[in-house]
Design a protein that fits this description.
Blueprint: H1 11-21, E1 24-28, H2 33-45, E2 50-53, H3 56-60, E3 75-78, E4 81-84, H4 86-94, H5 98-104
Parallel strand pairs: 1-2
Antiparallel strand pairs: 1-3, 3-4
């Protein structure tokens, strides 16, 4: 897992790279209760997403019009695609679409 920072790499490029390199990535704030619930849901499924903890200042400078989804935290990407926040994740799970999506990107394996 390469979370390295290249001084030559712009923030926009770095965020796009992280999203494309990790099957499940959450842009989170440690003080956010919705972020905590999202992490717990993944933990209960046995999924270990890449979590990027950002403070309020860092959230404000994210290139939101290009990369992140609404709401800004938690901002979830699965397979390089923006899923959204906690509400979108729960809806995906309740429809029965979350586990197949996680299996599809290699973040979860089902033992038969």
């Amino acid at each position: 897992m390469d979370l390295s920072i290249d001084a030559e790499e712009s923030s926009d490029t770095r965020i796009r790279r992280l999203i494309s390199e990790h099957p499940v990535i959450i842009f989170s704030r440690s003080s956010c209760c919705m972020c905590h619930v999202m992490k717990k849901l993944f933990s209960s499924l046995g999924v270990h997403p890449t979590i990027i903890e950002l403070n309020d200042h860092e959230m404000a400078v994210l290139p939101s019009h290009h990369v992140t989804c609404y709401p800004p935290a938690p901002s979830l990407f699965i397979g390089g695609t923006c899923v959204g926040g906690l509400e979108s994740l729960v809806a995906l799970h309740l429809r029965g679409d979350l586990v197949p999506k996680l299996v599809g990107v290699g973040a979860l394996s089902l033992l038969v």
